[in-house]
Amino acid sequence: MAKGYRGRAKNTFRAAIRRVEKGLQYAYRDRKVKKRNFRKLWIERVNAGVRQHDMSYSRFINGMQSIGSGVDGEEGILLDRKVLADLAANEPFSFKAVVDVVKMKTMKEEQI
Known about the structure:
With 112 residues, the protein is mostly helical.
């Protein structure tokens, strides 16, 4: 597993063991960091898309969650942040339709 390492880390057994173990630790840690970074990226993209339609990210996500829970016995919109970010970046008209549904639902809830 030490193939490709530089210096003693590839030539001597003891140093290679240390480097390989440290590399596995980094791999384990960075798998978690990768998930964290992608979630941050998706939130930024959804926030940018929602702000173009005069709504804040927190109100949008709150509205999405209230719709998704099926309040009033209705089926809701079940989209995660990854799909919402993709819609915001690549399908602006579809994303606008989702934002409009959330706006209508939140305005309806505010009137009640």
